[in-house]
Amino acid sequence: MGKADEAYLKLADMIEDGTVVPGSIVTEADLGQLAGVGRTPLREAIQRLDRERLLRARGGRGIEVPPISVDDQLARLEVRRPLEALAIGLVATRATETQRKDLRMLVEDFQVVDTIKKYSDVLRRAHTLVREATNNRYLSDSLTALHVLSRRFWRANISDTEKEISIGKTFIIPALQAAYNRQPREARDWIIKLNDHLVQSAIGVASAKAEESRIF
Q1: Residues in Cβ contact with 178 at an 8 Å cutoff, skipping those fewer than 6 apart
Q2: DSSP structural state of residue 70
Q3: CA atoms within a 13 Å half-sphere pointing along the CA-CB vector of 90
Q4: Distance (Å, rounded) from C-alpha 42 to C-alpha 32?
Q5: What residues have CB less than 8 Å from 203, skipping those under 6 apart?
Q6: Domains of the chain, residue spans
Q7: 162 within 8 A of 119, measured Cβ to Cβ
Q8: What is the DSSP letter of 26?
Q9: Fold for domain 70-214?
Q10: Do 110 and 172 contact (CB within 8 A), yes or no?
Q11: 25: helix, strand or coil
């Protein structure tokens, strides 16, 4: 893995977990200090993050970290739903034997995670594996930002950790099991159900914020 790839992964993780504050304006120097790399690989990483909408370069006015927005989340999910259903269906038919073993390991890991940190780590691995196992780089590239920013929204708005982890497992585990078993239709059905749940969760966040504004 090259320095630019390392910088990209570090910064993407920091955007997801909120270390790079949503809605803030940062400089190239700020990001370089966080990533711990030189100017050339840093700029390559920033360009990639900008293409994937994880950052927004503003010319001489700094670099914007996308804010967390219900409207943006719903727009992402509108695109993510069909793309992710396509992806998991391809995984079910195209995954190599090594990737199928990784799917089985992910199922086992999901079954035992019980903290937000562990769940988020396994979820990130699952998203990465699904993208890679499609064997379609255009589809993989399209899903990257959708996955990262959707996870960021979920982590920022989670209210009942135990409940949300349990619900997530309800959809993700059978989807991965179906992909492992070469059952594309079943895998797609579970992923669609997951995305429908995420839409309802985002709408619930909007309703809660509206109620809070009304009270105060």
Answers
A1: 88, 92, 184, 186, 187, 190
A2: H
A3: 17
A4: 6
A5: 70, 74
A6: 3-65, 70-214
A7: no
A8: E
A9: Four Helix Bundle (Hemerythrin (Met), subunit A) (1.20.120)
A10: yes
A11: strand
Give the mean pLDDT of 111-137. Answer: 94
If you count them, how many residues does the chain have? 216
Which segments within the chain are labelled E, that is strand? 25-26, 56-57, 63-64
Q: Among residues 69, 53, 54, 48, which one has the least CA distance to residue 20?
A: 54
Class of domain 3-65: mainly alpha
Residue 211 has pLDDT above 70, yes or no: no
pLDDT band at 147 (very low <50, low <70, confident <90, very high): very high
Locate 157 and state its tokens: 């708005």
One-letter amino acid of 12: A
Q: What is the pTM of this model?
A: 0.85
pLDDT value of position 61: 83
Run of H or E including 1: none
